[in-house]
């Protein structure tokens, strides 16, 4: 696994944890365990996104570093796969 | 993937309810040239695009259309909030009300539920981008017609913003079409489907 793939895996996993916890918290907003976990994965995702963005480019358009030009259009796009 | 932002792209604060205006404006949610169809059209056309700049353009405009869906829905919601039964009857809102109360359901101004038959994904970048240019103009004309029919400045202000975005998107799609054509044989853009036919781009020599 490349470093890029590893970082994307951390982002995907922490992001999915946030998605799942969010749904739970929407109806169980006072659960201390879920709140603690939400905070843990917020930090994990933020750190991984920061490192990924610095090394491989932005995954959201408002995070594009314009000192390297407009890299938002650069391949690969997430739906393209290996083919 | 997408993340929700808890904000409107352009603020909607309507003080006066108006069921008649709501019935007209809802067409830009669920009508033939509305924001729901725009969003589905662009986001689904992305997969058969051949140039990165065009993929980015469809992704970003398709995403903005989702935000416009929410703006149009917010207008309809605010225009129908706290309506009395008398206002519903007088405003011609009863046929909608009987099926949806004051919920926001994607229909055209004539009450026809949203249909994906209002757009295409042809799988040919030139064909699809040409449809997109027309789609932006049709939406712009619809907003112009809404401005002819609605007086409330709180509503008009938001409609004018949405109308302006149609013009900007039209410009960008024009550029996207040119980007696709620039990579093809200038003597016959239509000899190939650049998404399906292999080796049809400029650099190719038999």
The helix tally of chain B amounts to: 8
Q: Specify the biggest β-sheet of chain A.
A: none
| Sheet with the most strands, sense and barrel status of chain B | none
**Helical proportion of chain B?**
55-70%
Largest interface: A-B, 9 and 10 residues
Whole-Å distance between the termini of chain A?
18 Å
The rough form of chain B would be described as elongated
Radius of gyration of chain A: 15 Å
- Distance between the ends of chain B: 40 Å
The SS-based structural class of chain B is: mainly alpha
The count of helical stretches of chain A stands at: 2
Rg of chain B, alpha carbons:
20 Å
Q: What's the count of strands of chain A?
A: 0
Give the ordered list of helices and strands of chain B.
HHHHHHHH
**Helix-and-strand structural type of chain A:** mainly alpha
Strand percentage of chain B: under 5%
Quick check: average pLDDT of chain A?
Answer: 95
The total beta strand count of chain B reads 0
* Average predicted local confidence, pLDDT of chain B: 95
- Principal-axes shape call of chain A: elongated
Give short descriptive properties of this protein:
heterodimer, A: 83 residues, mainly alpha, 2 helices, elongated, B: 206 residues
Summarize the structure.
Chain A has 83 residues and is an all-alpha fold.
Write the layout of secondary structure elements.
The complex is a heterodimer of chains A (83) and B (206).
Chain A: H1 3-27, H2 32-56
Chain B: H1 19-25, H2 27-30, H3 35-45, H4 52-80, H5 85-90, H6 94-100, H7 125-149, H8 153-182
Helix pairs in contact in B: 1-4, 3-4, 3-7, 4-8, 7-8
Description:
The complex is a heterodimer of chains A (83) and B (206). Chain A is an all-alpha fold. Chain A has a domain at 3-58. Chain A has helices at 3-27, 32-56. In chain A, α1 packs antiparallel against α2 (32-56). The longest helix of chain A has 25 residues, at 3-27. Chain B has 206 residues and is mainly α. In chain B, α3 (35-45) packs antiparallel against α4, α3 runs antiparallel to α7 (125-149) and α4 (52-80) runs antiparallel to α8. The radius of gyration of chain B is 20 Å and the shape is elongated.
């Amino acid at each position: 696994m490349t470093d890029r793939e590893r970082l994307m895996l951390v982002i995907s996993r922490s992001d999915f944890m946030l998605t799942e916890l969010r749904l739970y918290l929407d109806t169980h907003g006072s659960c201390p365990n879920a709140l603690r976990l939400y905070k843990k994965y917020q930090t994990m995702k933020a750190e991984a996104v920061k490192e990924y963005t610095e090394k491989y480019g932005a995954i959201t358009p408002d995070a594009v570093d314009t000192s390297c030009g407009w890299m938002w259009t650069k391949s690969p796009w997430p739906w393209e796969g290996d083919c | 993937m997408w993340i929700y932002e808890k904000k409107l792209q352009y603020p909607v604060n309507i003080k006066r309810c108006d069921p008649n205006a709501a019935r007209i404006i809802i067409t830009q949610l669920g009508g033939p040239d509305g924001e729901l169809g725009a969003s589905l059209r662009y986001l689904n056309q992305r997969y058969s695009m051949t140039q990165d700049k065009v993929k980015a353009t469809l992704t970003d405009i398709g995403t903005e259309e989702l935000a416009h869906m929410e703006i149009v829905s917010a207008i309809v919601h605010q225009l129908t909030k706290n309506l009395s039964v008398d206002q519903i009857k007088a405003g011609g809102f009863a046929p909608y009300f009987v099926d949806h109360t004051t919920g926001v359901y994607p229909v055209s101004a004539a009450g026809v539920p949203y249909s994906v038959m209002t757009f295409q994904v042809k799988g040919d970048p030139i064909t699809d981008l040409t449809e997109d240019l027309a789609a932006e103009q049709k939406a712009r004309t619809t907003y112009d017609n809404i401005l002819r029919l609605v007086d409330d400045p709180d509503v008009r202000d938001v409609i004018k913003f949405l109308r302006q975005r149609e013009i900007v998107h039209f410009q960008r799609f024009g550029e996207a079409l040119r980007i696709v054509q620039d990579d093809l044989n200038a003597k016959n853009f239509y000899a190939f489907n650049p998404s399906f036919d292999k080796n049809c781009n400029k650099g190719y020599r038999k």
